[in-house]
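Sequence in, structure out.
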Amino acid sequence: MKRLPALLATALLSLPVLAHDFWMRPGNYRPAKDALIEVGLYVGDLGIGEAVPRSEERIVQFAAMTPDGEKKLLGRDGLAPAGYLRTSSDGFYVLGFQSSPAFVTLPPTTFVSYLEERGLDAVRQLRATRGESDQPARELYSRSSKAILKVGEQAASGFERALGLALELTPGKDPYVLPWNGPEGPFERLPLQLTFRGVPLAGALVRAINLDDPPREERDAQRVLQARSDAEGRVWLSLPSEGRWMVAAVHMLSLEDRSQADFESFWASLTFEVRRKP
């Protein structure tokens, strides 16, 4: 029974490979100085999810780049929230999480749906060319997640920090000062760059969901913003409403050595908050 929380954490971290998102949700995106912030990890669909307990064996990186340098996000293994952070100075705090790879085998219909939903057309076509569309898929996967917090109103830089995550989304503008374009919106376009191992990733499907007003069922999925990254890994998103937003992407490689797995996927998410100015 003592091992149950850790086993639950590992099981929940395995769920996202079935095309569920994985994201970081701090208790406050605009905290005051010297505040203690709970930092949760969540897994779910269309912005609706469950808290994932901390699993030390799966953590490669769980830290924040702060105005005072890097700070580890500490917590207790097997418990949620997964970490805690104290804001000691004004400025931007860029939180990052990286998991170790895990393995799963997916039924062919599940894998095809997953590829279609996440825009992984090249992998779907490769499996068709190999005559493997009706075969199970063996996959390694890992998770990267970021969140941006802003303490005080004077910070002008720091939101654009890259953390060296395997797959990473980084904004090109401060999301906390995006202009609101009139009573019907949307906000001014937010540029983001997607990188894989530090190199811009082209042609990836990037999705955005308002976590405060998520789609409640599949037929509302048109409320998910979608864009493909250009040759420089950039996308521009016109966020239609204020609130806490999650931006996410998936990248998948076909493995040359298929003795253990056929593919390796890398998942990324970024969360932040936007508000209309009075």
